[in-house]
Design goal:
alpha/beta, Rossmann fold, 2 domains, four-stranded parallel beta sheet, metal-binding, signal, transport, Bact_metal-bind_prot9
Length: 294
């Protein structure tokens, strides 16, 4: 995520499932006899907790829906947790550098989601929107936890299998959209939902110059801004995919133009709204895109 405004996402009340899935943990397995897992964000923490079940303890460093993993600096306590955990799960690809730095050069079990992606040619770091990568991460977490707690290895594998079955439901929504509305053009305020759009067969028409400027946190050239606005005013796209966690004057203006043009807006986020798990979150994202493009 780029520089975030302090916008807390509204969500439903925290449910029992979410509460149980992200249990607090000690700094090592010595406290309870169970493996300790520390994840960089609650996205990967929720996935790890789903695989861990009651047989390992999981904690996430970033749980605030408005926090920016790009700019996070660990406290002494957080550094200790990352250092002492039996397993560290993080995004990689430069997205959560604080976690990458914490485990660099250390002989410990880690799961780097970016390095786990099946398609190494795609360099978009928002791999938590890539269902294939998430499935690969689930398997790696199960394998790592099975090595740490051999008596529970079968349980970890079983939970990973169940989780991947649930992921298939998200893939089905995107696949149906790709079959029924192939190459539907959309515009993104930034390439956050890149992998969702790929799975849905959607064509991202966002001008490269505009997207590059957003990624580099610089002001796009006037020509790039004009070309981007024209896509909306000329209804050359069917929807605006809008990251509500990264808003500035320009993105708010694009949203206003889209609304004035009668185009649907698909709101996306890069940390989980409060009270939902990963499957619920990504299912909602896929359904919102499908509804906007029908």
């Amino acid at each position: 995520m780029k520089t975030s405004l302090a916008i807390r996402l509204a969500g439903v009340a925290v449910g029992a499932v979410a509460t149980l899935s992200l249990t607090a943990c000690g700094s090592s397995s010595g406290d309870s006899g169970k493996p300790s897992v520390v994840a960089s964000t609650d996205v990967w923490g929720n996935i790890a907790a789903t695989i861990a079940g009651p047989d390992a303890e999981v904690e996430s460093i970033i749980t605030d829906p408005s926090a920016d993993p790009h700019s996070h600096e660990t406290s002494a306590v957080e550094s200790a947790k990352l250092r002492d955990a039996d397993l560290v799960v993080y995004n990689g690809g430069g997205y959560d550098e604080f976690a990458e730095k914490a485990v660099a050069g250390r002989d410990k079990r880690t799961v780097d989601a970016f390095e786990s992606r099946p398609n190494k040619d795609d360099e978009n770091e928002h791999v938590f929107y890539d269902i294939n990568t998430v499935a690969a991460v689930a398997d790696r977490i199960a394998t790592s936890l099975g090595e740490l707690a051999p008596d529970s290895a079968a349980a970890f594998t079983e939970r990973a299998t169940t989780f991947k079955t649930q992921l298939a439901g998200i893939t089905a929504i995107a696949g149906k959209l790709a079959a029924e509305h192939p190459k539907t053009p959309v515009l993104q305020t930034e390439p956050l939902a890149h992998y969702l759009l790929l799975a849905a067969g959607v064509e991202d028409r966002t001008p490269h110059e505009f997207q590059e400027a957003v990624e580099q946190e610089t002001d796009p050239a006037p020509a790039a801004v004009a070309a981007t606005r024209e896509l909306l005013t000329g209804k050359q796209v069917r929807a605006l995919v809008y990251n509500v966690q990264t808003q500035d004057k320009m993105t708010k203006e694009l949203r206003s133009v889209a609304q004035s043009s009668g185009l649907p807006i698909v709101e996306v986020t890069e940390t989980m709204p409060i009270g939902v798990d990963y499957i619920q979150w990504q299912t909602k994202n896929a359904e919102a895109l499908a509804a906007a493009l029908r």
